[in-house]
Amino acid sequence: MSFTRPAPTPRTIGRGRDRSLLLNQVLLGAVVLLASVLVVLFDMVVSSPLLMYGVTIVFLATGAAFILPWTRFPSLAILILPLVDIGAIMLLRAAAPEAALGLLWAFPAIWIASAFGGWGAFLGVSVISAAYWSLMALDPSQTLSPSTFLFPVMIAGLATVAALGSRRALVQRVLLDKQSQYLQRSVDRARSQEDLVTEVLQAVDFGVIRLTTDGSLVVTNEAHGRLQRASAGASRAYAADGITPIGDDDLPLARARRGEEFENALVWHGDPGEEKRRALRSTARRLVDKDLTDAGMIIVTLDVTAEELALRAREDLVASVSHELRTPLTSIMGYVELALDDPSLSPVSRRSLEVVERNSSRLLDLVADLLTASAASHRGVELTLRPELVDLAKLVDAAVESALPRATERRMTIETDAVEDVRTVADPLRMRQVIDNLLSNAIKYSHSGGRVTVGLTSDEAHVWLAVSDNGPGIPESELPRLFERFFRSGLVRNSTTHGSGLGLAISREIVRAHAGEITVRTGLNEGATFIVRLPLAHPKEATVASAEPAHSPDAEEGAP
Question: Could you tell me the pTM of the whole model?
Answer without folding.
Answer: 0.45
